[in-house]
Every structure is written in structure tokens, then in C-alpha cells.
Amino acid sequence: MLSKSASSNATTSALSDLAAQTSVSFRSASDGQEKTLQLRDTNSSALAGAAPWRGFRWAMGQKHYSGTYWSATEHGHVIYESRLELARLLYADFDPSVNRIVAQPFLLKTEINGQARKHIPDFFLITDTGAVVVDVKPQHRLAGPKVSSTFAWTRAVVNARDGVTR
To answer: What are the residues whose beta carbons fall under 8 Å from the beta carbon of 64, sequence distance 6 or more?
Structure first.
């Protein structure tokens, strides 16, 4: 059995390795150029200038409610894919510490136990205290194994890179 400090060091090392092998792909809002960098080589200012990695879908009879919201923070439209995302977007827009809101900001890719993993967070916020990566899911879906494991590794790599996830 590992001591608490040895266990903590092993966990820190594993998270550091996971963060080191994670890549971030994003599109520049100014020219649409796609860039892929290692997570450790990215910075908040590059990601704050990202265009949505993917658009949202519209289809007759779809079960979710996608749309655009005019954001006072952004002085422009921000996309959302559900009413729950819209609620989180409103919360961010009315928070005076939020300076930037980027929807569907980037694609995270990594490999965990030989299996490729990828995830696009819902929002990337630049606040007075730093960057915040936001994932939005209904509470009843958070316990599902796919959602919980995706959120866990996203949280781990973002936090290892000095970000915050919510």
C-alpha cells in the first residue's frame, strides 16, 4: 500500500502525464484557421479568440432546443445547444467577473488506457480570476459512466494545466 504522500505523488504524476499527452484543437475566430497544440502549449488568450469548434444542429422534432443568444459580454451572438446551456450562458453573461464567453471552444483529445478519448466543452469563460471550462449536463445524466468518466478526465487535464472546470 502506498503512503498518502506517495499516493498523492503518483496521482500528480499520472495527471501530469495525461495533461502532457492531451491535445487541444481550435479554430481562430479571426481567420478560421484550425490549430492543434499540446495542452501544455496553449494559453487562454488563444482559446478566448476561438470560433465554435462545431455548430449546432437544427432538425424537425429534435429533443433539444438550440439557438443563439445576444450576449452583452460578447457584444454578439453566442450559440447554445439546450435550454440548460442557455441558462448557464445567461448566468455567465450576468456575472460581472466574466470577460469573455466562447461556446464549443475547442476539442480535447487524449488516450486513456489505450483508448482514444475526445471531448468538446460547452463553454470557455475568461474571468477576472482566470479561465474556466464549463460542461453542462442534466443532473440525472451525471452519474452515467460515459459522462462521469469524460468529465473526470476533462477536469483532470484542465486543472493540471492551471484551469478550472465547472
So the answer is: 81, 82, 83
